Fold this sequence. Notes:
- By secondary structure, the protein is an alpha/beta fold.
- Helices cover 39% and strands 8% of the residues.
- It has helices at 9-37, 40-45, 63-73, 89-92, 140-161, 172-179, 184-196, 216-233, 252-259, 272-280, 320-324; strands at 54-56, 59-61, 167-169, 199-201, 240-243, 264-267, 285-288, 300-304.
- The strands form 3 sheets. It has a 4-stranded mixed β-sheet with strand order 5-6-8-7, with helices on one face. The protein has a two-stranded antiparallel sheet with strand order 1-2. A two-stranded parallel ribbon has the order 3-4.
- It is globular and about 85 Å long.
- This is MA2A2-like protein.
- The chain crosses the membrane at residues 12-31.
- Residues 124-326 form the Glycoside hydrolase family 38 N-terminal domain.
- It comes from Mya arenaria (Soft-shell clam).
Amino acid sequence: MGFSQQIPWRKVKLICLVSVLVIVMHILWTFTATSLSEDPAMEVRRGRPDSYEVNMHGHIFPSIEKTKVVQQYCKKVDPIRGVISTYDLPEETDYSLNTNGKYPIPQELYEADKNGTVDDQIEVILVPFSHADPGYGMTFEGYYTQRFVHVFSNMVDYLTSHGNMTFQWAETVYLERWFREINDEMKKKVRELIRRGQLEIVLGGWVMPDEASTHYQPVVDQLIEGHQWLQENLGVTPTNAWINDPFGYSSTMPYLWKKSGIDNMVILRIHQAIKSTIIRKRGMDFMWRPYWNSNNNNDILTNLMPYFGYWPGDVCGPDPSICSQFNFLHLPSTEAKPDLSV
């Protein structure tokens, strides 16, 4: 016995209509997104989801400021949006060395306009930073008595007399050691510098922990100890992290930092060849998300510094000799050097 089935033309027409509408909407959305990227003001007015704000010292820097800087000073850098997988990076990386036996760093250079237009202006931001290992070339007490006690005292004097200057400190263990022996008046000055945003505590764990061989439990313990001391003595909880010296980074750490109240972090030490690959991908600023995290609730804004180290000669750009002129502590000169003994 045969039978025939009638074609549901109404459903077919409805499916075709919906498909056409989806295609038209996609074309319009793509055109709008392209137009917005060419108009910084419109980008902010429409509230694009990729715009963000950074909270530092209680001040808000909206995305229009970032867009303005990119448009005026960094026209050679085209931002990208996408996902970079750390699993894929090794296969995408060229491990060849240059003639100096180092991994080459990609550089984009262009000739400056001889007329000196605004496109050739470069805004340089100097951020005095610190990193204090509690045990490396000297003992803990050796570092404290020979170096850091003088750094703290000079910091308070200088910041108090120069209201437009700032300083940052990362390891709470040395702050606690210093607070044991200073008087109440000095402690009051430190708290005032914190309140004014001139002194910022970054990360604020008891130490800056290793991330390659440590278990998460002692990492959390030292972070709690540092943050509790900061709350009890300075009334502050860090929101930014300066993590410049671990030799490699674990994807678990950003999750822990985020849970502790950290919103932004700066890192440095990864394999230089892989770092060069990330530079070519224009991915030095990114939202770090662990593989096991399925949503963006724990993403943390991360800046990866481009060069090998963090000494003046390392971070000066294509010509390290420029910054080396200001590395006063190590200049072979007959001129007076900063006196760390007073």
